[in-house]
Fold:
Amino acid sequence: MITGTTKLIAHLGYPTESFKAPLIYNPYFQKNGIDAVVVPMGCRPEDYPAFLKLLFRLSNIHGALITMPHKISTMALLDETSTNAKVAGSCNAVRLSSDGRLIGDMFDGEGFVRGVLRKGKKVEGAHALIAGAGGVGSAIAASLAQAGVEHLAIFDANQTTATALLDRLRKYYPQLDVTVGSADPEGFDIVVNATPLGMRRGDPLPIDIDRISPSTFVGEVVLTREITPFLEAVRARGCAFQVGTDMLFEQIPAYLEFFEFPTTTADNLRAIAKLG
Structure:
């Protein structure tokens, strides 16, 4: 039940038809007696800067979840951003502070890293390769750096995109050994596919499967299907792996902490979500 005391969390993006967050957060809030609600709000890019500022003038607004196409443009509208958001170059959560400032963070990569750790893979001191330096790849790179990887290799078909991520990582994590270039997975402890390749049958696989060691932990970011052709191939090699929806569910406890709500586990969220 939504009342006059309910804290509003806007889910901002455009279009809204594919939004999943309300089907995860709201059952959790209801089950745990938390007086809050996530509300999808479709906002076109040209209206977004003005709308975000007005939204946070509401007396009952608590925060916002940010999704496409607004993750990058949000950065210029905030008073404070986390290091993760600065390295990623984008933001997917905004909170109103007690003094009225807008504070932003990025949790895509945090969800990925929490999932890896919960599956028993050590991240600190690891050597990791990320194929794809776009939004989600940059967010994962930021969180891996924060978690203490020793070496991070970045590959992207767009050299400018890869180099921009390299520069941001070197600025905020000067001690990190980070390189840009090849997608050769040999010798890496963690390999991440953050490209669209491998989503559909017939796509070329993003990484040479034959050069991935069976001891390598492999991550995928695709949400539309659980086992992509890429994951099928690495599973056949004996690799431990993480599916894209693990990243989604693992980041929600981090969001709850950011919004100062009681937190929970990814398993609990999966059990009560109304995704159908």
The chain has nine helices and twelve strands.
